[in-house]
Amino acid sequence: MSKILIIDDNRDYAESLEIALQARSYQVMWAPDSIIGMEIIESELPDLIILDVIMSSMGERILLAYKLKSDSRYAFIPIIMLTGITQLTGLRFDPKNEDEVLPVECYMEKSEGLNALCSRVERILGSNKH
User: If you average pLDDT over residues 67-74, what whole number do you get?
Assistant: First the structure.
């Protein structure tokens, strides 16, 4: 059973996502911030991380992604960077360009919905056997 870590300070959203992923037979862990998230990563070594960008500090989440991808112990763990920035600001990231800047396997807006996110998780985990 693949282990997925959700790092998101929105507990309601994380619980909804957790239910959707558990229905697809994934083991799900949750952390409200990068500090607890890193503790879970070190102890549990998840198969995939879903990392919300906009929390108490947007830069903190981006730094965590860079830290993980530059550390050989964690670099192989795929990261889905998730955000609601378009809903909050009207600004839109261009995933074609952001994947080159952000050290993540994919970038998704929360507004794409849980089913789209779960489908992306399944594609990434299915193609990322390590």
Answer: 95
Q: What pTM value is reported for the model?
A: 0.85
Report the CATH number at residue 20.
3.40.50.2300
Expressed as residue numbers, the domain containing 117 is 3-127
Place of tokens 């890193």: 38
Q: What pLDDT is recorded for position 61?
A: 79
For the residues of 31-81, what is the DSSP string, one character each?
ESSHHHHHHHHHHH--SEEEEES-SS-HHHHHHHHHHHHTSTTTTTS-EEE
Which residues are CB-neighbours of 74 under 8 A, at least 6 positions away? 41, 45, 68
Positive or negative torsion for Cα 112, 34, 64, 105: negative
pLDDT at 48: 98
Pairwise CA distance, residues 5 & 98, whole Å? 22
How far apart are the C-alpha atoms of 22 and 40, rounded to whole Å?
18
The total number of structural domains in the chain stands at 1
Q: Which two tokens stand for residue 1?
A: 């059973």
Q: Give the confidence band of 99 by pLDDT, cuts at 50, 70, 90.
A: very low
Helices (H) and strands (E) in the chain, counts: 6, 5
